[in-house]
Design a protein that fits this description.
The protein has a single domain, classed as Sandwich (Jelly Rolls). It is mainly β. The protein contains no helices and nine strands. It comes from Chitinophaga barathri. This is DHCW motif cupin fold protein.
């Protein structure tokens, strides 16, 4: 099911931030939730390491700084300002870490669920 979202501008500074502790450091999320769609402005503090391996699909765009997306198989991808990654639900175990901090836009939702066979 898709959502009908009317045009709107977003002043992220007016969206309340929530704090999510990592294994080290913390993440600040400013979140907009629609039916089947979540859009977040996320900032990881310097020294942040996620406290879990994530299976959820995302579109992640790096706005400022850089971070490492680490996969459970040991692969590591450095993403710097202007770079993005995309993955569907249940296609990787991944987590983020950053030495110097980073600002990201993260979009996820029902459109990233794996296709069901016919």
């Amino acid at each position: 099911m898709s959502a009908n979202i009317p045009f709107q501008s977003i002043n992220w500074a007016l969206i309340p931030a929530t704090t999510h502790p990592g294994e080290t450091g913390s993440a600040q999320w400013r979140t907009l939730q629609f039916q089947g769609l979540r859009i977040r402005m996320v900032e990881y503090s310097p020294g942040y390491l996620a406290d879990h391996w994530c299976q959820k699909g995302h579109i992640v765009h790096c706005l400022e700084g850089s971070f490492v997306s680490e996969l459970a198989d040991g692969s590591r991808f450095v993403l710097a300002e202007g770079m993005s990654y995309v993955v569907s639900d249940d296609l990787s175990s991944h987590r983020s870490l950053t030495e110097s901090g980073v600002k990201l836009m993260i979009i996820d939702g029902d459109f990233l669920k794996p296709a069901t066979p016919l």
